[in-house]
Design brief:
The complex is a heterodimer of chains A (226) and B (336). Helix content of chain A is 34%, strand content 26%. Chain A has 226 residues and is an alpha/beta fold. In chain A, the strands form 2 sheets. Chain A has a 6-stranded mixed sheet with strand order 6-7-8-3-9-10, with helices on both faces. In chain A, strands 2-1-4-5 form a 4-stranded antiparallel sheet, covered by helices on one side. Chain A is globular. In chain B, strands 2-3-1-4 form a 4-stranded antiparallel sheet. The chains are: A alpha/beta (226), B alpha+beta (336). The interface between A and B is large, with 47 and 45 residues.
């Protein structure tokens, strides 16, 4: 599903965010990326969502070489990826329903189909009752769940999340992670950047460890197929 | 808008399954569904942009006021010009050469000259006004009846009004020159001369109207562009979220284009309101002024056609202004 082949990223400032990173993630796998602040976790995710381009190496997502995707093709690629952010990035001037519907509106789904899918997504994250609420009236945990509903509503084959539990207390973090694990279980590839070691241990999934831009460990707990 | 992703070629890596030989992508829909989706998106932008404008009524009102006055000015200019042109149109018909005879010449001389002129090929008609007729006419029109009674003798000369043939459009026709050199003639007043001046003035006014309209149209473009630019800045977060989750330029741009269109539309409606108000305020005094000139001419305001043109043009201006600004923003702040 995702393949990094000797990927390096050097920013214009001269910072080497990633150096010669190589790994492979199979479809339906749930994988964590961890490391200290500035280790390159966010850069790695940005290369997948085409927010950044690698300086060297090849990034392949779903058998497509991203280097071949030109600027006009970028939105189409992003529509195929569900993205979750630490600060959830909801639009505060519209309702929960409209926030979740946004990817479908962009993709051009019909209104009936949109309503159906939005409700299904909200139901999955347990917020169906709040569809008319403004994101501002929700708790942080609920806001993040709306963010997740928005990421899954278009049924992407890949979900990437950058520190999705960064702002949440441990109890909420576990709940959010359990949600992600559910999607992983139904065949969606899930890639989560997180520095919460306690959580990673608890989730017992494959973990890529980055240190100063280098991939120093590819840890697979027992029971997770290589 | 879902458009076929032209740029996603088959990857160099051999695909395992044909259907998967592409980057991950969102839902794809058939053409008819895509068309209706496109319509839905426009519907959405159409109303959401309107909703946003009404959500900030004061800011919107201020912008619309500025636009309204900017658009009303050239409209009023144009109205004045159009009326002046019509007024002069009536005068353009006037080709008469007015010949004032010397006061020594009596009515008989006038009749003789009139007879000579009638025989000429380049004259279609000659009307003789004797001093007596002239006095009576003057008494009636000027309202100086009593003052005229005090006069001992009639000071008015014999007047011949000569209508030349249509073809007589040269700057200084032979007829006029001959009349000027005639010993019996005191003064020749040829209407074409001041008519030329008038049309010169009208031509100049027309150009002024065009230049002012162009400048203010440009100002409209800038005002709308600037307003939309501030709008974009206020919503840059929202734009970046939309781009991150896969919105293309067209999708991001659309609500701003509609906002620009709304600004232009409301601005032009306000401008028309201003113009109608001005018309209304001036109608009475102008009517009286025209009445005193025997009302040969009817004042007219903005017609339906001009209203439609103005509204459409300023809506288009708003759209263009917004397009320029959003395109610039998208080009400058694009996440690569």
């Amino acid at each position: 599903m995702i393949r990094f082949d000797n990927v390096s990223k050097r920013y214009l400032t001269g910072l080497d965010a990633l150096s010669e990173v190589t790994f492979d993630i199979a479809a339906g796998e749930m994988v964590f990326v961890t490391g200290h602040s500035g280790a390159g976790k966010s850069t790695l995710l940005k290369l997948i969502s085409l927010a950044e381009r690698p300086s060297r190496g090849q990034v392949v997502v779903n058998h497509a070489d991203l280097a071949r995707v030109r600027r006009r093709g970028v939105p189409q690629v992003r529509r195929g990826i569900g993205m979750v952010f630490q600060d959830h990035r909801l639009l505060t001037d519209r309702s929960v329903f409209d926030n979740v519907a946004l990817p479908l509106l962009i993709a051009g789904s019909s209104r009936i189909e949109t309503a159906k899918r939005v409700r299904a997504a909200l139901d999955k994250v347990g917020l169906l009752a709040r569809e008319k609420a403004s994101p501002l009236t929700l708790s942080t945990g609920e806001q993040q769940r709306v963010g997740i509903a928005r990421a899954i509503v278009a049924k992407p084959s890949l979900i990437i999340a950058d520190e999705p539990t960064g702002n949440l207390d441990p109890q909420l973090s576990v709940e959010i992670m359990a949600l992600f694990a559910e999607f992983g279980a139904v065949g969606t590839t899930v890639l989560i950047a997180s520095h919460d070691l306690f959580l990673l241990k608890r989730m017992n999934k494959r973990v890529l460890v980055l240190d100063h831009g280098r991939l120093v460990d590819d840890f697979r707990p027992q029971g997770v197929p290589a | 808008m879902t458009r076929p992703a032209r740029n996603q070629r088959t990857p160099a890596v051999a695909p395992k399954k044909g259907a998967e030989a592409r980057a991950p992508r969102g839902p794809r829909t058939p053409v008819a569904a895509r068309l209706s989706a496109w319509r839905d998106q426009h519907f959405y932008s159409f109303f959401s942009s309107l909703g946003r404008l009404t959500a900030r009524p004061w800011a919107t009102a201020l912008t619309v006021l500025v636009l309204g006055f900017a658009l009303a000015l050239p409209l009023l200019f144009w109205l004045v010009y159009a009326n002046a042109r019509d007024l002069s149109g009536g005068l353009r018909e006037a080709r008469e050469v007015t010949v004032f005879l010397k006061s020594s010449a009596d009515a008989k001389v006038g009749e003789v000259l009139a007879g000579e002129l009638r025989k000429r090929a380049d004259v279609t008609d000659v009307v003789l006004h004797t001093p007596e007729q002239g006095l009576a006419e003057f008494r009636q029109l000027s309202g100086f009846g009593e003052a005229l009674d005090a006069l001992q003798s009639n000071p008015l000369p014999t007047v011949l009004v000569v209508t030349p043939r249509e073809s007589l459009e040269a700057d200084n026709p032979a007829l006029v020159a001959e009349l000027k050199s005639d010993p019996r003639v005191d003064l020749v007043q040829y209407d074409a001369e001041w008519r030329r001046k008038l049309s010169g003035i009208l031509h100049f006014t027309e150009r002024v109207v065009a230049v002012v309209a162009a400048l203010l149209a440009f100002a409209t473009l800038l005002v709308i562009g600037n307003t939309v630019r501030m709008d974009i800045q206020a919503r840059s977060m929202e734009i970046s979220v939309m781009q991150t989750i896969g919105a293309g330029n067209a999708f991001v741009r659309r609500p701003f284009l509609y906002a620009g269109f709304w600004y232009g539309l409301f601005g032009s409606l306000l401008a028309l309101l201003i113009v109608v108000t001005v018309e209304f305020a001036l109608a009475d005094p102008i009517g009286r002024l025209l009445d005193s000139y025997t009302n040969r001419f009817e004042l007219h305001g903005v017609g339906i056609a001009s209203i439609l043109v103005v509204v459409a043009a300023s809506g288009l201006l708003g759209w263009i202004g917004a397009f320029i600004v959003t395109t610039r923003h998208l080009a400058a702040g694009r996440p690569r």
